Amino acid sequence: EIVLTQSPGTLSLSPGERATLLCRASQSVSSSFLAWYQQKPGQAPRLLIYRASSRATGIPDRFSGSGSGTDFTLTISRLEPEDFAVYYCQQYGGSPPVTFGGGTKVEIK
Amino acid sequence: QMELQQWGAGLLKPSETLSLTCAVIGGSFSGYFWGWVRQPPGKGLEWIGDISHNGDTSYNPSLKSRVTISVDMSKNYFSLKLTSVTAADTAVYFCARHRIGVVNWFDPWGQGTLVTVSS
Fold it and tell me: Cα–chain-centroid distance for residue B49?
């Protein structure tokens, strides 16, 4: 099983600040198969980034993804009030073929 | 704009069978996989399994012995059954379109159904 470890568990920041979220895989993951999601309380996850760095339809350009191999990053360049949420990375490969990271909560400082 | 709408029983007793259905509205059913993901209260996401439009399935090994995912192409529905539930199966269950191929993602998602297992 490919384990995804997200850090930090919680990120306390103010609106306007930059957020950097990390996702580390226990073994190499194809960049094509790394995605990021945003989840707000009581809602389903929303696809933000696929193929490690491609923004999904309708996602603002303040969200960007990067990385390869075992280390991937989601960056929010300037936090807006609606960006405070939990973020998950997800990979495809291995057994089971789909795993998610444990999540990073971005909270208002 | 594709939308997924899901429904099913929200309260089960231990040993009963969880049954949820997801309708695909406003888009093509063919060419994609259709998946189920669950989230225990206050916890992270766990993939349950997928089915293709023509019935090919893939299950999480941790649940495989209890899970069946099926598809009804005539109605654009897919369904989840999980047998012999326990309190550990209490979670919000989501259905989602799963793109598998040169890229991999889940989008869109259903609204989620809270399933509580309690005696």
Answer: 7
